[in-house]
Design a protein that fits this description.
Chain A: Keywords: Cytoplasm, RNA-binding. The complex is a heterodimer of chains A (79) and B (173). With 79 residues, chain A is α+β, with helices and mostly antiparallel strands. Chain A is built from three helices and three strands; from the N terminus they run H-E-E-H-H-E. The termini of chain A are far apart. Classes of the chains: A alpha+beta (79), B alpha+beta (173).
Chain lengths: 79, 173
């Protein structure tokens, strides 16, 4: 549910919504949601001073029933 | 299409933009915001009804229901973040800055009532003492409520300090 919610939140604000995908990875230290966006949208989802990225993290953390989730933003070319 | 043609189209579009009434524009903002939020509620399996309104020159969208505390957060922190994202979703569609206000579970409505109560007391105190008085740290929304109340009472006010510790000082007229 978290990945789907995050994908919806991100896709709603970018210029290339079809390029948005979210992958959930289980790390030793907990869950990581990896958000991929079009290269032109990366600045937009991070925002001035990381403000928009913080907003995504705040909302997703609020929806998470079992605590901490890490969110990384990468562009679709990112490895 | 030639550049000249494109420019002409752009000019015509601007003209028709100004012809669109403010009410229509705010209504559209509300619709876009409602779609964005409705789907989020759906995905998160949260129960809430979406109410749209216009207050002065801004669209107000409220998610109404109980069990929405998570979307408000401590001191409305989650609400502010969700409002920020909702405004971005609106801007993506309209291309124009949005001052849309989001409320969840009546949080802002309640805060407004509390802050107004406080503002009234401080306004009276400043009137009788003639001395400026500082209030505690407040969110941008709460400060706006105070500034509006002070202006209506005919006194002056200013915001001082840095976020998130920004506060309002009420001064005699």
């Amino acid at each position: 549910m978290l990945a789907e919610a995050l994908e919806h939140l991100v896709a709603g604000v970018v210029d290339h919504p079809d390029d948005v995908s979210v992958r959930t990875r289980q790390l030793r230290r907990g869950r990581l949601l990896e958000v991929r966006v079009h290269p032109d949208d990366l600045g937009k989802v991070i925002g001035r001073g990381g403000r928009t990225a913080t907003s995504f993290r705040t909302v997703v953390a609020a929806l998470s029933s079992d605590g901490g989730v890490r969110i990384d933003f990468v562009d679709v070319d990112g490895r | 299409m030639s550049d000249a043609g494109t420019e002409l189209d752009a000019a015509q579009e601007r003209e028709s933009d100004t012809g669109v009434s403010l009410a229509k524009r705010l209504e559209r903002e509300g619709d876009i915001a409602a779609d964005y939020l409705e789907e989020l509620l759906d995905i998160a399996d949260l129960d809430g009804d979406i109410d749209m309104d216009v207050e002065g020159d801004r669209a107000v969208v409220s998610i109404i229901g109980s069990g929405l505390d998570a979307l408000v957060g401590e001191n409305g922190k989650v609400l502010e973040a969700l409002q920020e994202l909702t405004r971005l979703a609106v801007v993506r569609e309209t291309g124009e800055r949005s001052r849309l206000m989001l409320d969840v579970g009546g949080f802002r409505a309640n805060r407004r009532a509390e802050v107004l109560e406080l503002a009234k007391r401080v306004i009276e105190a400043v009137r009788s003492s003639g001395e400026p008085e500082s209030l505690g740290a407040m969110s941008p929304f709460e400060r706006k409520v105070v500034h509006d109340a002070v202006a209506e009472a005919g006194l002056r006010s200013e915001s001082e300090g840095e976020e998130p510790r920004r506060y309002v000082v009420v001064m005699p007229a």
